[in-house]
Amino acid sequence: MVLKAVCSFLTIIINKESEGKKMGQRVVVEELTPRSFSPFGAFIDLVVPNTESIGERPVTFFRDMAQLNLGGTTQASFSICQVEERPAVVDKTEFHSHCGEAILPLDGDVLIHVAPATPGNKVPVEKIKIFRVRRGTLVILKPGVWHHAPFFLKGEDENFLEINVLIVLPERTYTNDCQVVDLDKSQQVEIVLKTDA
Length: 197
Hints:
Blueprint: E1 9-14, E2 26-28, E3 30-31, H1 34-37, E4 41-45, E5 53-54, E6 61-62, E7 76-84, E8 89-90, E9 92-95, E10 101-105, E11 110-114, E12 129-133, E13 137-141, E14 151-152, E15 162-170, H2 173-176, E16 179-182, E17 189-194
Parallel strand pairs: 3-12
Antiparallel strand pairs: 1-2, 1-17, 4-13, 5-6, 7-15, 8-17, 9-16, 10-13, 10-15, 11-12, 11-14
């Protein structure tokens, strides 16, 4: 499935009709807004900053633009997640109990899925939302928010094969504070391009 950035909007389908199973809920993918994303965290456009600054052109320092909950540690680790085109299906999700996570697409736009924090490993599939995150926009997830690797979103005039996404977490979070859940087929969420709206 090829996703194009020129679409009117994107839709997710929960419980795709397969093997006689009834089609589930349809949810429109949203652009990031402070109101729509606040239950999951915050975001800020790093390419066109609009915050307090120190200094004037030619050197302007935009200070303290966003904060990431590192869960009591003082050491952040910066990693790259390279995402390529793959089936646009949320088939796994994860959360971190003790820290937030920062996500910054460097090369192009991506789609992320999020769902509110829950007790235990029960994924609130019916509450999953999909957001488009534009290149250069820093997303900060709250501790406990369900998420996983972003999905590649390729524009018509872009010819790269992967998107590099900067991930900021406390060091080794992927080994000591990462609960991953593989979703049953009946719980999986398919991202569908909707162009006839």
